[in-house]
Structure formats: C-alpha cells, structure tokens
Amino acid sequence: MKGLFAGLAKFVVAPAAVITLLIVWLRPAPGQETVPFEEVEPGVHDFDFPAIWEFSFGDSEFFHLTINKPMVQLIVAAVAILVFFIIASKKLRVVPKKWQFGLEYAYDFIRSGVARDILGHGYEKHVPFLVGIFFLVLVNNWFGEFFLLMFPTWSTIGFTMGLVAVVFFYYVAAGVSEHGLKYFAVQVVPSGVPLWLYPLIIPLEILSSFVTRPLTLTIRLFGNMFAGHLAVLVFVVGGGWLITESSSWLYNYAGFGAFALGLLVIAIELFLGFMQAYLFTMLTTTYIAGAVSHGH
Amino acid sequence: MSDKADKPEPTTQGGNVAERIIAEFFAGIILYGGLGYLAERLLDVPYLFMVGILIGVALSGYLLIKRFGSSE
Predict the structure, then answer these.
(1) Which of A59, A128, A256, A289 is spaced 20 to 30 Å from A192 by Cα?
(2) Are B12 and A290 a contacting pair at CB < 8 A?
(3) Which sequence spans correspond to the domains of chain A?
(4) ipTM score here?
(5) How close A75 comes to chain B (CA, Å)?
(6) Diameter of chain A measured on Cα atoms
C-alpha cells in the first residue's frame, strides 16, 4: 500500500503539480496583451493531422501517399508489441520473475478468459490472432494517455474500419474453412420461418450478418475513443482558456477545477481503453464462435 | 440451423445476444427503411418511408423472437 502511494505521488501528483505551476507561470499579468492558450475551440478538426511524409509516384492523384501521425502510431504500436513479445519470450523460466508473470497473466487473460471460454473445443488456432488484436487495440487506446503521443489511434474511423475489416475477413475465412461454402447459406437462411417470408428475410440476414455486425463493432470502438478524447480536449483546453484568457478570478479558479476534472477524465480513459480492448476482443471471439459453430 | 440445444452454451451468451439484437434491428431499419424511402421518392406516396421502417422493425423483431425467444 505504501508503494502504491509513492507511485501515485511520483506519477500523478508530481506531473500535475508541474503542469499547474507551468500554467500559473504562463498566466499573463493584468493589462498585458494576452496570448491565446488555444486559438480555436476543440472539435473534429483536432482529429485531422497534417502529413509528416509524402510520397508521389508519377503525377497521378491515386499514387500520392501521405503518412501522418496516427499511421506512425499504428506502426510504432505494432513494432513495440512485436519486440516486447519476442524479447520477453526469449528468456522464459519455469519459475517466473515479476515481468514474466505479468506477461503470462496478460496472455492467459485472453487465452483462457476469452478464447477458451467462448470458442471451446479447437480454440488454440485462434489464440494468436486474438492476442494480437487485443494488444494492438489496447496499446493504441492507451496512446491517448501516453504523454508523447496523446492521441488514441482508433478515434479516427478509417483506422477502426481497417481493423474491423481484418476481423471480418478473419471470421468469414474461419467459417468457410470450417463449413465450406455452406457457411454463407448457414449464416443467411433462417430457421423456423415460413417459406413465403424467405424473400423478405434473406436480404435482411445478409445485411445483418455481413454489414451491420462489423458496423456496430466499428462504431463501438471508434465512438468510445473519439468521445473520450474529445472530452479530454474540452476539459483541458477549456480549463486552460479559463485560466489564461478569462478576466474574472472566479473563472480562473473554475479553470483549475476543469483542469483537475480533465486529469480525472484521462484516468477514466485509461480504464475505458482497457475495457474497449477487452470488449473488442470478446466480440471478435463471439463472431468467430458463431462462424465456426455447428448447429447454428 | 437446427435448434439451440446442441450448441455449446458460451459463457458470454448475453453479450452475443445483445450484439445480434442491435445488428438485426439496424439491418431491418436500414434495409426496409431505405426501400420505403426509395419507394416514397419514386411513387410519390408520402408515408412509405415510415411504413418501410415499421416493416423492418417488425421483421427484425420476428426473426429475433424466432432465434432467441424459444431457448429460455
């Protein structure tokens, strides 16, 4: 318990105090011309990033590639996870040390807690994919609170759609490899429905199996990350504005309150990032389970 | 596509069912609402959009009752 408080003091209270002191120091004196803390209000434009690198192949617009911050984050996350797991699995011991215990716990959390519980028999071949998905989503969610990056990658919907496309093709492929092409018929044709309703039901089932299920998966992850990051932005930028720009001392103090609430929202975001990564992995697993199960 | 009895009951059946329900209603409203909207625009009848949405919701609900209603 003492260690926890020391950690809290080191990692939460000290940075908060430094930030507060910086803001007090940056606060303009009365009568001095003020420099805006933020010139524009937080909004959707905060999720657009300029290109860091640009590549052009010929004059065509199609071959004009741009790399921006979320793309770099995605690559950094993938490489970091890869390197971490490779290094960690090099020196495994029978009696685990602290870090190995943590690694095994995290791996087993997905392997036993999610994959084995939901998929049941024959779950082993899906474990690498699920662990990869979980850690990719988790690390990219936590980039929203990581001080160098401060941006959750999945709060831009294009990235979430790409991730869900991978998941979609994976579970369709799993279903096809399990049932053959009969998989599509199994997914689409309902049971216990009179024959004259089939023309009405089958388009509905096609849409619900292959369009709206991936769509809800996308919207859930994207919406949570987007809204959370926007809430952090509003509290932090708004608090900063109240402290630096507002003329009334009452509003200045309210700005400190908003800033403190912003830190609280960041803490909630840490939890939500984990929660959404877990939920995403769990729903992916249930989709795979629905695709490979017999007697659907 | 037989009954639910031979399916191994997953521990997170509830989450799966909730997911299916949301997806099913979305699909019904989007498909039949969209068809109703198109019919409304083409035939110039002012209420077909609403009728389409209602048909979609009804069909989705019927399917969901067929799929999940009997197992409890």
Answers:
(1) A289
(2) no
(3) 115-292
(4) 0.72
(5) 30
(6) 80
